[in-house]
Amino acid sequence: MPRNEESVATKLQRIAEKARSDPKCRFTSLFHLMNRELLWECFWQLKDARASGIDRVTKEQYAEHLMENLDALIGRLHRMAYVPQPVRRVYIPKPGSDKQRPLGIPVLEDKLVQAGLSKILEAIYEEDFVEDSYGFRPGRSCHDALRVLGRTIERQGTQYVVEADIKAFFDNVDQDQLMAFLAHRVADKRVLRYIRRFLKAGIQEDGVYRASDRGTPQGGVISPLLANLYLHYTLDLWFQRRFQPGCTGPARLIRYADDYVACFKHEADAKRFRIEMEKRLGLYGLEIAPEKTRILAFGPMAQQWAKEQGRRKAETFDFLGFTHYCTTSRNGKWFRVGRKTISRRLSAKLKVFKEWLRANRTLPTAEIMRTTANKLRGHYAYYGVSGNSRSISNFAYQVELILFKWLGRRGKRGSLKFEKFRLLRQRFPLPPPRIQVNLW
To answer: What is the side-by-side strand order in the sheet with 203-205?
Structure first.
C-alpha cells in the first residue's frame, strides 16, 4: 500500500503528543486522516469470517475490489454523504446464565469507518484515560486489572470492597451527554457528526427497524472506546478528583469497561462511596443493580472478623470471570487474594462444549481432538492464573468425560471402552492444565 509523505501512524503520534502536552487542547482538524492508508490498514485488521450485517457483505467479498471500494467509500465520507446502516440484532448465550446477550452486527463498511474513527480518537484519549481503566485499551488486559486489584488488596491496606454492577450500561448511555464529553477534546465537526450518525443508526431485528435514541451500538468497533469515554467522565475522574481526596484512608477504583470494584481501608468510606456513586451515575442516565451491588469486608482482617461474627469464612466477590476469596500464602504467614473460576461460568463453558460435541460428533476423530485441544488452550490462557489450578484441572477432567461419553455414542453401545479411549488420548494428546499467568 503506497504511503503519503508522512504516514498516518506518524500523524497519530503527533496528535497523541499534543494531547499529552496540552490536556485542554481541542482538536479541530482530524477528519482528513480518514484516508486510503488508514482505512486500508483498518480493513486488514478486521477479523476474518465474522458475521455480516444487514447487507450480507463479507470481508472476502469486499476484498475482491478493495481499492475501488475504499476510494468510493472515502469519496462519500468526505462529501458527508456516507450514512451508517442499522445494525443487525442477534442474541448470543450469556455465560453462566439462561439469559441471552443482545449483540449488534454492523455492515462491513460501518465497521471499517468506526475502526478508522477509533484510531483517531484513541490517539487523543489514551493520553487522558486514567491508569486504573483497563478495558479494551492497547497494551492492557483483564489479567492486568486482576493483578492490580490483588496487589491493592494485599499491600495497600484494603479491608472493604464495593462490588458494583450498572444495569444495561451499553443500552442506557445518554447520547447527548456522550457527545458533550467528546466535545471537550474534539472540535472537528465532521468527526462529531459521523459519531452522532452511528449512535442514531438504529437496530434491525427480524426485518423490523427500531430507532436508537439511547445507548451505544453494541458490537460496533467504536463502542468500547465510547463506553470508556463515557465512564471516564462520569466515574473515573469523579472518583479521582472529587471522591478519593475526601477519604480517610487509601481508596482505589479499578475498572474494566463497565465492570469495576472499589477498594477501601475504612468502612465509612465504602458506605459513602456506595451512596454517592449511585447519585453520580444517576446524573448521567445510569443506575446500579441493587441486588448485584454490595459492600463486603475483604482484606487481611476479613477472615478474623468473619469468625468473630460466627461465620466460617469471609465473603467472596466476582470480578472478570473469577470468584475472589480470602486466603493465605503457602506458609500461612501472609494474606493472599485467592481466585477461582466462577462456578456458573465453568458450568456454562462445559455445557457449550457438550452441545458442540453432540452436534459435531460425526466429524473425523482427529478434527474433534484438535478442536478440543484448541478450546482447552484458550481456557487455560485466560483462567490459568495463580491459585486457580484446581478449577482448570476440573475443567480438563470434565471435558475428557464429555469426550468419552459422546465419542462412545458414535458406534454400538459400550463400544468405546476406557482402555481404547486412553489409547486414543495417547494418539491425540490434549494439552495438560497449567498456570500460564502469574498474578502474584
So the answer is: 100-105, 87-93, 203-205, 208-210
Tell me: the pLDDT tens digits for 198-251? 999 988 888 888 888 888 877 789 999 999 999 999 999 999 999 999 999 999
Q: pTM for the whole thing? A: 0.91
In angstroms, rounded to a whole number, what is the distance separating the alpha carbons of residues 185 and 264? 32
Contact 257, 227 (CB under 8 A): yes
Cα separation, 433 vs 245, in Å, equals 44
As given in the structure block, the three cell numbers for residue 5 are 509523505
**Cell (9 digits) for 2:** 503506497
Encode 235-272: b = buried (16+ Cβ within 10 Å), e = exposed. bbebbbeebbeebeebbbbbbbbbbbbbbbbbeebbeb
91 and 84 in contact (C-beta within 8 Å)?
no
Instruction: Name the 3-class secondary structure at 177.
Output: helix
DSSP H or E stretch at residue 198: helix 189-199
Query: Is 388 within 8 Å of 436 (Cβ atoms)?
Result: no
d(C-alpha 54, C-alpha 56), whole Å: 5
pLDDT tens across 37-73, in order? Answer: 999 999 999 988 788 889 999 999 999 999 999 999 9
Q: Give the other-Cβ count within 10 Å of 206's Cβ.
A: 6
